[in-house]
Amino acid sequence: VGVMTTDQVTFPLEPVYKKTGIIFHQAKALSIHPEGDATSPLPFVTLEYTKTGMEGKTEKITYDYLINATGPKLKFEATEGLGPDKNSLSVCTAGHAKQTSDALDVITEKMKRGEKQKLLIGTGHGNCTCQGAAFEYLFNIEYELRRRGVRDKAGITWISNEQELGDFGIGGMHIKRGGYITHSRVFTESLYTERGIRWITRAHVKEVQPDKIQYENLEGEIHEENFDFAMLLPPFSGVGLKAFNKTGEDITSDLFAPNGFMKVDGDYSKSKYEDWSPEDWPKTYQSPKYKNIFAVGIAFAPPHAISKPMSSPNGTPIFPTPPRTGMPSGVMARQVAYNIVDMIKGKADKPTREASLAHMGAACIASAGAGFFKGTAVSMTMYPIIPDFNKYPESGRELGYTTGEIGLAGHWIKHFLHYAFIYKAKANPFWRIVPE
Prior knowledge:
Blueprint: H1 14-19, E1 27-33, E2 44-49, E3 58-62, E4 66-68, E5 73-74, H2 94-112, E6 117-123, H3 131-147, E7 154-159, E8 174-177, E9 180-183, H4 184-194, E10 198-200, E11 203-208, E12 212-217, E13 222-226, E14 229-233, E15 236-237, E16 242-243, H5 252-255, E17 293-295, H6 327-344, E18 362-367, E19 377-382, E20 403-407, H7 408-425
Parallel strand pairs: 1-16, 4-17, 6-7, 6-14, 7-10
Antiparallel strand pairs: 1-2, 2-3, 5-15, 8-9, 11-12, 12-13, 18-19, 19-20
């Protein structure tokens, strides 16, 4: 929305790695060779440089331990017409966010001239994740339009693959307050109603045209929604890494799931929702095939969704895939790093520290408008991330650690954490004391 500049949210990586003694290659990984090749038994990764002046040059980097922490590929091509190079906008990168901010300025000027504008915010595919990012943008843009004095000229619509508002890809959550247990659906619907935001849920966007989308709902019906401004998140996939054995045979399917994410120590055998268990989720993020390979964050393949899988009568899957960014990514990466250190030092011959999402809590602060005295943010905590109805039959989570509220204090904390996390990412003095 233009509140911060690109320079306030990005910084060069090379100086950070240099001062911490980390060898940095500005490049993209192409393939993993866990057994080496015909010329050497040492495992290696093939990479292609992206650094200015070295574009296209390839190199082999050997390793003793490998952590796959690539993050996702933004799969705009999954929906026809989706993405900033086509008919919709995005906030997934700093460049995308700047482009979207500029587009917001354009429609703001139109509204100042008295023109009505339709804004469409949400997910651009039936299997998107990270609803929280779109949710955060939705309420920031609503706040910003009020601040600019043009809110009355804007019709704002939310579109999502969630079965209900407040699902967030985690099956929703229950909050206990004043002796009452309330589902996040009620909390979220109240917020949308208060801000005058219309919503469409259970939707798979099939096509994005220059001024409208076509979407399918869970009933199998096809509908259209017009817009003047659309910010729609793409689905995620793995980045497309390949894997080869010593003889050069393609073993990508051994290391990676069909969606491109790396298989780790989870249980991928359970296809039925009724058979799912919290214990299906990985604990150490170690590859079952190669014990010196790990995957963390978005890069690991979840064993299944968290929200109940749903499909339309046409067979179109319409449900969120599991979110794995933010705090959980930091925790699992830290535990994997400690495990590798223990194995290098001979303290253990296998990972001993665990970071299962089924035994991990998380906190999330979603900005709902930036302003030191008038800003707000939604603050949520939950434990555990993966619901466990055997342990917590009432709601799947410990109600004492699962909370949600909105207010100015949340904005102050969000503002502080923004600078704290960038400070930590720059490896500045005492960065270790800043939590994930």
